[in-house]
Design goal:
Helix Hairpins, about 120 residues, binds adenosine-5'-triphosphate
């Protein structure tokens, strides 16, 4: 198969559209973005190391990706099961649980990195 650069660019465009369709509409995503802005500012003010930035950025990526997966699952559930169903509810709750696990882990890592500076 030949590598199609234009198709690749289009795929990035669709991915970007997917992200934009969530920003400002998902309350949890907005919360994470605000928290990340605060952590980034704190990182600059406190002068965390390059290795610490690497870990912080990895945490940002994991939490945002988890939130996007969760939103995609929520929307898919709403599409296939607009009526209430216990399994539909469980699917949403499990996906939300996965985000919570990532967010709590990121928060603990943040405390481990930032507390020594304070
Ligand atoms: N189709 C469904 N069947 C059963 N339970 C559901 C369903 N959709 C949502 N739930 C339950 O409600 C919780 C909140 O879901 P969600 O955030 O999608 O809001 P909602 O109840 O669908 O209402 P809204 O979309 O108006 O906020 C889910 O975590 C789940 O426990």
């Amino acid at each position: 198969m030949r590598y199609d650069f234009k198709k690749q660019l289009r795929s990035f465009g669709y991915a970007w559209q997917g992200i934009r369709s969530c920003v400002g509409k998902e309350q949890n995503l907005s919360f994470h973005l605000i928290a990340m802005t605060a952590v980034t500012l704190a990182g600059f003010v406190l002068g965390i190391t390059r290795t610490e930035w690497t870990v912080v950025i990895l945490c940002f990526g994991v939490v945002i990706a988890a939130e996007l997966f969760n939103t995609a699952i929520e929307r898919l559930v709403d599409l296939v099961s607009p009526e209430r169903h216990p399994i539909a509810g469980q699917v949403k709750d499990i996906a939300a649980g996965a985000v919570l696990v990532c967010a709590v882990a990121a928060a603990i890592i943040g405390l481990i990195i930032f507390i020594p500076y304070l």
